[in-house]
Specification:
The protein is of the alpha+beta class and 505 residues long. The chain is 38% helix and 16% strand.
Length: 505
C-alpha cells in the first residue's frame, strides 16, 4: 500500500505539509489560511469534504470540541473505518481492486478499465471548448493533486454518459451540487480564511446532530455490479462516491484507472438532491406541493437577481447560510459556488462572494432587507427598460411605432454592460440603505443608488450609439429622439424616489 493520508504529509497548505489528522488539527488551531495547489473550482468540494469528514468523526466520538491534537483526529478518523485496521480506505494506492482505497470503492471482477494519465483528466470538469480549464496538463502531479481530483469527482460529478452516473446530492444528472453558505471574515475586506470557515461549519452542523445514524463513508462499502445503496442505510451527512476509480503506482508517479457501473452507487433519483431533510447544509431547496428539489444552476450565473431570489424568494435557505446566534455582530461573506452544467458538460465554474458588514448581518434576512431589495429591483428594471427602449428607437430610425424585436435586440450589448454595473453595486447599495438611520436617510441612500444607475445608463447609451445601425439621413433625428426618450425615462425613475415613503408617512 502507498500514500497513507492518516500518516503521511501529502497535503500542502501555507502552514506546511500535512496528513489528514495534522491538517484538521492545524485548522482547529486556525493556522491554515490557504491551499496553494487547490484549483479554484475544487474549493467547494474540498471545503464540504473536510467539513463532512470532521463532523462525522467528532459526532461518532460524541464530542463537540474541535481537537487541536493530531492523535485525537487520527483516532477519530480511524473510528470511521473500524473494519480496516490496515488503514486501506485512507491509502491512495492498495494492491488489487478488491479492497477500498481513499475515495476508491472495491471493484468486482470482470470490469473493463481505461487509463487516466493525469489528475485534471480525472477531475469532474467537462467543457465543450476546453477553455475554462485545459485538460490533461498536470503531467508532474503530486499525490495531493490526485486527492483534490478524487474529492472533486466523487462528491460533485453529474451524469457523464452510459455507465458514468452522478452523485446523489444533485437534482438530476445534468444539475450541479451548489454551495450557498456564510463564511466568517476577519474584516469586511479580508479574504475568506479556510480554517475559520471550516470550524464555523463543523460547529454549526454538530449542534444539529446526536450520533451517526447510518453509513458515514460510502467508499469502503462493497459495490457489486448492478447494485445501489439505499438512502435509508446512510447517515444524512454521508460522504459519497459516484464513480469506479483506482489509483495505481507507475514508477515513482501515480496514474488512474476508471470503469463504468450498471447502476448508480446510491439509489437517490427520487430524492432530487434532497438528502439531509427539508433544510440542507449547503443547498437551497424549492418546495413544490408535496415534492421538493435542490437548486439547479443550469446555464445561469450567480447574478444579483439570482442571489436575491435565493435569499428572499421561494427557496428554503441552506442551514449554513443562516447566521448563528453568536454571528450577528461580525463581518461575514455570503458564498455561492456551483458548476453551470448542461448535458454531459459544464458551462463553467460559477463563484460569487458577497461581503456582509457586521452592522447588516442582524437584518440580513429580515423583512426590511427584502422590502428594500424589491424596491431596488424595480428601480433597476425601470432604468434597464428605459435604456433598452431608447436604443431600440435609434435602431428604428427614430420611429416610435416601428420599434420591433430586431431593434430591441440591438440594445442587448448595452443592456448586458449595464447589468454588469448593477451586479457590482446592488448588494453594497442594499447594505447602505439597511445601515441608514431613519426614513429620510434611507430615501437619500436609494436616491444615490438610482442616480448611479442613471449615470451608468447614459454612459452605456452613448457607448452603444456608434454600433447601432441607422440611415445617415435619419441618424440626427433618431439620436435626438433616443436621448430624449432616455432622459425622460430616467427622470421618471428618479421622480419615483420618495413616493412610497410619502404615502407611508
Amino acid at each position: 500500500m502507498k500514500n497513507n493520508l492518516l500518516t503521511e504529509p501529502l497535503i500542502r497548505s501555507d502552514a506546511g505539509w500535512h496528513s489528514l489528522p495534522t491538517l484538521l488539527a492545524a485548522m482547529a488551531r486556525g493556522e491554515v489560511a490557504a491551499f496553494p495547489a487547490l484549483r479554484p473550482h475544487q474549493r467547494p468540494a474540498w471545503h464540504m469534504f473536510l467539513v463532512q469528514l470532521a463532523t462525522l468523526a467528532l459526532d461518532a466520538m460524541v464530542t463537540r470540541d474541535l481537537p487541536e491534537d493530531e492523535a485525537v483526529w487520527a483516532s477519530a478518523l480511524r473510528a470511521l473505518t473500524p473494519d480496516h485496521p490496515d488503514d486501506a480506505p485512507w491509502h491512495l494506492v492498495v494492491p488489487g481492486r478488491s479492497k477500498p482505497a481513499f475515495l476508491q470503492p472495491p471493484a468486482p471482477d470482470g470490469l473493463n478499465w481505461s487509463d487516466v494519465a493525469t489528475p485534471d483528466a480525472l477531475d469532474m470538469v467537462i467543457t465543450s471548448r476546453n477553455h475554462d480549464l485545459k485538460a490533461r496538463i498536470a503531467r508532474q502531479a503530486a499525490p495531493q493533486d490526485w486527492v483534490f481530483a478524487l474529492v472533486s469527482l466523487q462528491t460533485m460529478e453529474g451524469y457523464g454518459g452510459a455507465g458514468n452516473h452522478g452523485i446523489a446530492r444533485m437534482n438530476g444528472g445534468s444539475s450541479s451540487r451548489p454551495m450557498l453558505t456564510l463564511a466568517p471574515l476577519d474584516d469586511a475586506a479580508a479574504p475568506i480564511n479556510p480554517s475559520r470557515w471550516w470550524g464555523r461549519d463543523v460547529r454549526r452542523l454538530l449542534d444539529r446532530r446526536s450520533g451517526l445514524s447510518g453509513i458515514a463513508l460510502v467508499w469502503p462499502e462493497p459495490w457489486p455490479e448492478g447494485r445501489s445503496l439505499s438512502l435509508d442505510r446512510l447517515d444524512p451527512l454521508f460522504i459519497e462516491v459516484c464513480r469506479r476509480v483506482r489509483l495505481v503506482a507507475h514508477g515513482n508517479a501515480l496514474v488512474a484507472l476508471r470503469s463504468t457501473s450498471k447502476a448508480a452507487r446510491i439509489a437517490a433519483k427520487e430524492a432530487r438532491g434532497l438528502i439531509s431533510g427539508e433544510i440542507e447544509p449547503w443547498a437551497p431547496v424549492m418546495v413544490e406541493g408535496s415534492s421538493a428539489k435542490t437548486l439547479t444552476l443550469g446555464e445561469q450565473d450567480f447574478t444579483y437577481a439570482m442571489l436575491f431570489k435565493l435569499l428572499y424568494g421561494d427557496w428554503t435557505r441552506p442551514y449554513l447560510a443562516e447566521p448563528g446566534p453568536d454571528e450577528t455582530f461580525q463581518p461575514m461573506a455570503f458564498v455561492a459556488e456551483a458548476f453551470s452544467r448542461g448535458n454531459s458538460k459544464t458551462d463553467g465554474f460559477r463563484s460569487r462572494v458577497v461581503p456582509v458588514p457586521k452592522r447588516v448581518l442582524k437584518q440580513f434576512f429580515g423583512p426590511k432587507a427584502e422590502e428594500l431589495g424589491e424596491t431596488m429591483l424595480e428601480d433597476v428594471k425601470a432604468v434597464t427598460d428605459t435604456l433598452r427602449g431608447a436604443l431600440a428607437l435609434v435602431a428604428a430610425q427614430g420611429e416610435y411605432e416601428k420599434r420591433g424585436k430586431e431593434d430591441y435586440a440591438r440594445a442587448a450589448p448595452a443592456r448586458d454592460a449595464f447589468q454588469r454595473f448593477v451586479d457590482q453595486r446592488f448588494f453594497p447599495a442594499l447594505w447602505e440603505q439597511l445601515q441608514a438611520e431613519g426614513r429620510v436617510a434611507r430615501t437619500e441612500a436609494r436616491r444615490t443608488f438610482i442616480n448611479e444607475l442613471c449615470e451608468a445608463a447614459e454612459t452605456e447609451f452613448e457607448r452603444a450609439l456608434p454600433a447601432i445601425p441607422c440611415a445617415r439621413l435619419m441618424r440626427p433625428r433618431a439620436e435626438l429622439r433616443g436621448r430624449r426618450t432616455l432622459r425622460a425615462g430616467l427622470h421618471r425613475a428618479i421622480g419615483k424616489v420618495g413616493e412610497k415613503e410619502t404615502q407611508d408617512a
